[in-house]
Amino acid sequence: IGDKALTYYYNTNDTNFIDLAKLWNEKYNLPFVFAQLCFTKNGKQIQKIADSFIQKKVKIPQYILKQYAMEVLPKNVSKAHINKDIHIHDLDFFRTRANCLNNPYEMIFMYGLESITCSSRPAKHFQVAINQILKGLSLSQSHLAGGQGFPLFNVLLAPFASGLSYEEIKQGIQHFIYEANQINASRGYQVPFSNINCEYHIPKFLENETIKYSCNKGNLFGDYEDESRQILRALCDIFNEKDANGKPFLFPNFITVVRNDLDKDDELLQKVIETNLITGNGYFINMLKYGKKLAT
Question: What is the pTM of this model?
Answer without folding.
Answer: 0.72
